[in-house]
Write a structure and sequence with these properties.
By secondary structure, this protein is an alpha+beta fold. The protein has 14 helices and 22 strands. It has an 8-stranded mixed sheet, sandwiched between helices. Strand 15 and strand 16 form a beta hairpin. It starts with a strand and ends in a 10-residue tail after the last strand.
Length: 513
């Protein structure tokens, strides 16, 4: 039995018109099993069949027999006095769930906010399970309760002769993610100003060098704003720099070192550049700790075949790691090269599993790969030369799609059912995909909600004319899963044709490249 934290969900006393709390009526919301499910179904029958006559004979349906359906019940004392069920809306769970059959015993209706407690608990549980679209069809007279909690009306329906409202719980996990990781960039970097190019002033530049001012005043140069790497003017060199969160360095130093190489190689790969060298700056509390970071760093450098050229090492300082990477290409691929109507493809290594300690946020597809396999993946963009490419980073698939769209001057829509997920393809080699299968009724330990927001190890979002994606590797799955549109932000499109807003506007604020 799982306890749902009702007091935290219900908010202050008196919310939603509930009566002042009587300890004897304070509900305890739990995940139901056995006799609790039977008690809930009796309450449903009494309310929807016997009392309201919405259904004839029985209100049971296929969801009652679906093993994925979860029932929550409210206890007062030792009695079940209310309940609700939630379940996936599709045979393959892609993160779209519904809530239904909310019921409260006649003598407890309006008392102690039992109905609102059940609804709030259902919303909280759905989000914990990685649900990213949560719908319900509720009776007109009950819709006020849902609206006060924050639900939005999406339509109307008539069931059993009774007016209902179709409603949706707004889930903002991807907006929160991009707000936390990327939304501050424009304010800090000030693209288009000289401060973005350093401490140069007009007085320090010769007349001849003033002509270069335009390229200096844009991050990466005109056409490259928003990319994770920058072309070095007058050369075929691409420079990239990335840092690992200090908390991650402190918590998992070897993994931080490995990821320091991974994210920088990905930045170069997204621009079609072959990595030629790394420079590192590492610090830690003592020599033993720094040695662990460097061990992961060296292991990664050997795996991708990139030499460590040098750097800076400091002992007796807070944990930190940043890496500068250099690569070369004569035909760099921009992150902002997408055109209106371009299809968006995701090329992702679906092998591996969640990194221990980072379940739901970091997918470890790379450590089990052989060196040749990692290098093949790193060369996908260079071989394909798409119109635009961005590597999936800490903003997740949704946020990365948003950044590519923003840099291209457009918005984007993602077809949720088309997104490659673990188990959706045979990624060969030593890191072959595991046992979670999108072809079954569940994705197992990988929810769509987590997958669209995680760092997947190796993942590239690319844009090209529809049907013309050239991205390919035997160690990754590629699928067209969206398109660039005129509507700003990122929307998710579902199998029923409905769309839900994931990101309301530009991810970084840097604007078109």
């Amino acid at each position: 039995m799982s306890l749902i934290d009702v007091p935290a969900l219900m908010g202050p006393s008196g919310v939603l018109g509930a009566t002042e709390s009587d300890p004897a009526l304070s509900p305890l919301v739990v995940r139901a099993e056995g006799s609790d499910v039977a008690a809930y179904r009796r309450l449903r029958h009494d309310a929807f069949v016997a009392e309201q006559a919405i259904f004839s004979g029985t209100d049971r349906d296929d969801l009652d027999d679906d093993p994925r359906t979860i029932v929550l019940v409210a206890w007062v004392g030792a009695e079940v006095i209310g309940g609700v069920r939630i379940a996936p809306a599709t045979a393959i769970d892609i993160g779209w769930w519904t809530g239904s059959r909310l019921v409260v015993a006649p003598g407890a209706r309006g008392a102690a906010g039992i109905g609102s407690a059940l609804v709030r608990a259902a919303c909280a549980l759905a989000e914990q399970l990685g649900v990213i679209r949560f719908d319900a069809t509720v009776q007109e007279r009950s819709s006020i309760l849902f609206r006060r909690i924050g639900w939005e009306t999406t339509g109307t329906a008539v069931i059993g002769g009774v007016e209902h409202r179709r409603m949706r719980w707004p889930i903002g996990r991807y907006q929160r993610l991009v707000d936390a990781t990327k939304s501050h960039l424009a304010a800090l970097l000030e693209p288009g100003s000289l401060s973005a190019a350093g401490s140069l002033s007009a007085g320090s530049l010769s007349a001849g060098s003033l002509s270069a001012l335009g390229s200096l005043s844009s991050l990466g140069g005109a056409g490259w704003v928003g990319d994770d790497g920058a072309p070095v003017p007058g050369t075929d060199v691409i420079a990239a720099c990335d840092a690992i969160l200090p908390s991650m360095v402190e918590r998992d130093p070897e993994w931080a070192g490995w990821c320091g190489v991974l994210v920088n190689v990905n930045d170069l790969s997204a621009m079609g550049a072959a990595p030629v060298g790394l420079l590192d700056a590492v610090a830690g509390r003592d020599a033993a700790f720094v040695r662990r970071v460097l061990a992961g760093l060296r292991r990664g450098a050997e795996a991708w075949g990139v030499p460590l050229l040098g750097g800076h090492t400091q002992v007796g300082a807070p944990a930190s790691l940043s890496i500068t990477a250099l690569g070369r290409t004569s035909t760099p691929v921009p992150g902002g090269g997408g055109r209106l109507g371009d299809a968006l493809s995701l090329t992702v290594d679906v092998g591996g599993s969640w990194r221990p300690g980072y379940s739901g946020s970091q997918w470890n597809s790379t450590e089990a790969r052989r060196s040749g396999e990692l290098r093949d993946l790193a060369g996908t963009v260079a071989r394909a030369q798409p119109a635009a490419a961005k590597d999936v980073s800490m903003a997740g698939i949704v946020g990365t799609v948003g950044m590519l769209a923003e840099a291209s001057g457009y918005g984007a829509v993602i077809e949720v059912g088309a997104v490659p997920v673990p188990g959706s393809g045979a990624a060969g080699g030593s890191g072959a995909a595991g046992s979670v299968s999108r072809g079954s009724v569940s994705m197992g330990s990988v929810s769509m909600g987590d997958w669209l927001g995680c760092f997947p190890g190796f993942g590239m979002v690319t844009a090209d004319r529809a049907g013309r994606s050239r991205m390919s590797s035997p160690y990754a799955v590629t699928a067209e899963m969206g398109e660039l549109t005129t509507s700003p932000g990122v929307r998710l499109r579902w199998p029923d044709g409905e769309t839900t807003l994931a990101v309301s506007g530009g991810v970084t604020g840097l604007g078109p490249a």
